[in-house]
Each structure stands twice: as C-alpha cells, then as structure tokens.
Amino acid sequence: MQKIGICIKLAAVSGLSYIRKNPHMALAALLFLAGIAFLSTKVSTISGALFGAGASLLGAWVTELNNRRSNSEDKARRESEARRYLAPELNRTIERVLYIHQRAIPTFSSASIAYAAGEQIVKPNDLQKDFIPYMPTLYPNAPQFRDLTGDDATALIAFYDSLHTLDKFVNEWWEREGQLHINIFNMILTYSDESLRFAEDCIQKFELEKLYPPKYDSWGTLSSRIECSKVSAIQAREYHMARLETKNAKPAR
After folding, report:
1. pLDDT tens, 202-223?
2. Which residues have a Cβ under 8 Å from the Cβ of 48 and sit 6 or more positions away?
3. Angstrom distance (rounded) from CA 129 to CA 174
4. 158, 159, 165, 168 alpha-carbon torsion, rounded to 10°
5. Residue 173: closest CA among 155, 161, 185
6. Helices in the chain by DSSP H: which ranges?
7. Could you tell me how far CA 94 lies from the centroid of its own chain?
C-alpha cells in the first residue's frame, strides 16, 4: 500500500508539472469533459460551445507545441553552426600553443642544465616570437559567439583568456634584466600547460578532432599530442629537480 501511495503521489506531481507546462491542453481537456457532462442534461446545447472552445484550445496547444519544437531545433542548429564557424580559429590557436609548449620543453631543459652547471652549456636559438601565441580575431565580436551554449562559451573564454596571460608574460618578461632563463622558460611552460588544459575541454566541446583529423595516422590526434607534450613537460621538471638536488648536494667551492 505504501508503494502504491508513493506511485500515486509521483503521478500527481508529474501530472501537475505537465499541466503547468501545457495549460492549453489541460484547459481543453477540462472543457471536453464538461461538454460530455452537459450532453445528458437539459442544457445540452452548451456542450457544442464547450466542445468548440476545447477544440480551439487544443489547436492552440498543438501550435504552441510545434513552435517549441521548431524553436528548439532552430536553437540547436544555430549552436552547431556557431561551433563550426569558430572551430577553424580555435584549432589554429590550440595548435600554436601546443607548438609553444613543445618548444618550451627543450628550452627549459637547456636552461636547467646551464643553471645546474653554472654556465650556458647549450645555447638555444629561440626567439621571443617563437613563444607568442596566436590570438583570436573572431572572438568575442562575432555574432556566432552569442549562439553558443553557456558551457561552450565558458570553455572558449577560459582558453582565450589563458592565451592573453601567456602572451602578456612573454612580452613583458622576455630577456628581462636580472631574470634567470630557467625562471622565464619555466613560467612559459607553466602558462602553456594551463592553456592546454583549457584547450582539451574545447577540443571535446567543439569536436575539433572530428572536424580536423590528423593528416597522417602516425601524427596522432590533437588530444594525444597534447597528452604526450604534457608528459614530456612533467619529465623535464623531474629532471630539473634532480639536477638541483645534485647541485645542492655538492660541497661549495
């Protein structure tokens, strides 16, 4: 009995929720029932009016239902088109930050070796422009951006904001007097790490790997290349810490 009571309550709640969402249908059903009730009375002529009113409301409900479906389909279409419109630029900027990350790893390692040895053993030939990320031109002014879902827009904003952080650091701290190369490249690696973390979310939401599959199977997907680069960065930092421990363990001359 208790289970039956719970089922009745759930059905009632579900029914009330449906009525709130579809008031036209609920009122039409009520008018039809009233019309049926009046058929067997002395004022049966009222039944026709009630049936007519019910039919009008039912028609209005069908129209509203079709409009909802049409609006929902149109919204989904615009969201899909917006993702496809913004995808090329997004893919290009992610590829660039991945390049920066991959370039920063050996440069950081080179600076680490030099710092541990107390001299510049390996001099990298990197230029500042090698670490400048590509910035978006469509975002945020393109009208398609407003058609994105909240989650898609949030992912895009987070990624592009991280590019601004990386760009600002490279422009302001490159070859700054008094700063060690190891510190500068460590921060470039850190900021590009952060950008790639946001990029992975964008890759999934904007289906970039479906739109831009690797040209050759041996290249791997964009996500797999990001993962490999992140693993290499972790290893580079571990080797750096090992060098520091070795350096600190040596007696001072």
Report:
1. 999 999 999 999 988 888 999 9
2. 35
3. 10
4. -130
5. 185
6. 2-21, 23-39, 45-117, 150-173, 181-205, 208-211, 222-249
7. 13
